[in-house]
Design a protein that fits this description.
113 residues; mainly beta; 4-stranded antiparallel β-sheet; 0% helix
């Protein structure tokens, strides 16, 4: 069993930056592919970024490429999402996912125009 807790969300103006963190407990997340998803009001949850377990290869949805960076610190059992040049359309609840199975409770990101 893996527990995931997101943090770092908040309110930011367009063009600003935020860094989200996802802290794992219960098991080491080093063996898991990790991902960030987001869900805006009235919309389905969508993939944002992922990082593989052993090689740390990264993947991004097109709309965040060049602006977001996913990274992991296995020693801290934590995954990060650095978000730069934020846009109002990035407003959503951001969720951390491990192994395509475990979910965190989400953290709200609001970008004002």
């Amino acid at each position: 069993q893996v527990q995931l807790v997101e943090s770092g969300g908040g309110l930011v103006q367009a063009g600003g930056s935020l860094t989200l963190a996802c802290a794992g407990s219960g098991r080491a997340i080093s063996n898991y592919a990790m991902a960030w998803f987001r869900q805006a009001p009235g919309k389905e949850r969508e993939f944002v970024a992922a990082i593989s377990s052993t090689t740390s290869i990264t993947y991004y949805r097109d709309s965040v490429k060049g602006r977001f960076t996913i990274s992991r610190d296995n020693a801290k059992n934590t995954v990060y999402l650095q978000m730069n040049s934020l846009k109002p359309e990035d407003t959503a609840v951001y969720y951390c996912n491990a192994h395509r199975y475990y979910w965190g409770q989400g953290t709200q990101v609001t970008v004002s125009s």
